[in-house]
């Protein structure tokens, strides 16, 4: 087909109108997608936002220690119910270099340890390699510390650990895009483990952490 023929079949202005419409459709679908991602509408997510904003005053929940060394600070890169990989998770991601010492956020009994994973990446296929520690607390909750370094765990199943005790070293194993500690607390409800948000002791008192902020662990 020579250019003259195509011109006759598809006049140029129609072609541009078609293109413009297509771009508009793509643009608005993108906006729609963004706005739907922005807010998780589950009741749990609502409750969390209220807690984070300090709207819930009467709070006697346990105060956890930030899970790294006293005087050091790390940025919370993903908070509760955030957009990336935590859309339906009440988990926290603290960005930190591989080999950062991890301390128990709360005392308890070590229930599970995995440290033989030596791979990590942004693909669900890597999930099985995620080294982790699970610690059971006295009130029936349990905490998980994820993506730890290969052979980087210094406690064993059955050990009793105190809050602030060294338990291992961070890494980048499992389903992860960059070196960080993924921290999560579950509560058993009628046989199901439900993820819950927890308060941490910060320099400004007991707070529900907010994403993109750096938190220093006070003495
Ligand atoms: Zn995470």
UniProtKB/TrEMBL annotation:
<dbReference type="Pfam" id="PF01551">
    <property type="entry name" value="Peptidase_M23"/>
</dbReference>
<feature type="transmembrane region" description="Helical">
    <location>
        <begin position="20"/>
        <end position="39"/>
    </location>
</feature>
<keyword id="KW-0472">Membrane</keyword>
<feature type="domain" description="M23ase beta-sheet core">
    <location>
        <begin position="90"/>
        <end position="188"/>
    </location>
</feature>
<dbReference type="InterPro" id="IPR011055">
    <property type="entry name" value="Dup_hybrid_motif"/>
</dbReference>
<keyword id="KW-1133">Transmembrane helix</keyword>
<dbReference type="InterPro" id="IPR050570">
    <property type="entry name" value="Cell_wall_metabolism_enzyme"/>
</dbReference>
<dbReference type="GO" id="GO:0004222">
    <property type="term" value="F:metalloendopeptidase activity"/>
</dbReference>
<protein>
    <submittedName>
        <fullName>Peptidase M23-like protein</fullName>
    </submittedName>
</protein>
<dbReference type="InterPro" id="IPR016047">
    <property type="entry name" value="M23ase_b-sheet_dom"/>
</dbReference>
<keyword id="KW-0812">Transmembrane</keyword>
């Amino acid at each position: 087909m020579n250019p003259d023929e195509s011109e006759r079949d598809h006049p140029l202005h129609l072609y541009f109108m078609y293109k413009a419409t297509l771009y508009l459709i793509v643009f608005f679908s993108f906006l729609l997608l963004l706005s739907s991602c922005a807010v998780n509408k589950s009741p749990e997510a609502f409750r969390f936002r209220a807690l984070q904003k300090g709207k819930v005053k009467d709070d006697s929940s346990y105060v956890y220690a930030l899970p790294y060394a006293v005087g050091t600070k790390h940025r919370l890169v993903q908070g509760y119910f955030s957009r990336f990989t935590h859309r339906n998770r009440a988990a926290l991601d603290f960005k930190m270099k591989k080999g950062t010492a991890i301390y128990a956020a709360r005392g308890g009994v070590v229930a599970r340890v995995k440290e033989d994973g030596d791979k990590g990446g942004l693909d669900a296929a890597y999930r099985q390699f995620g080294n982790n520690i699970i610690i059971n607390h006295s009130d029936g909750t349990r905490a998980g510390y994820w993506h730890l370094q290969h052979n980087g765990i210094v406690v064993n199943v059955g050990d009793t650990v105190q809050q602030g005790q060294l338990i291992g070293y961070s890494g980048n194993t499992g389903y992860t895009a960059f070196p960080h500690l993924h921290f999560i607390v579950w509560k058993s409800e009628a046989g199901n483990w439900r993820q819950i948000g927890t308060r941490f002791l910060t320099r400004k008192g007991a707070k529900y952490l907010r994403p993109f902020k750096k938190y220093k662990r006070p003495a």
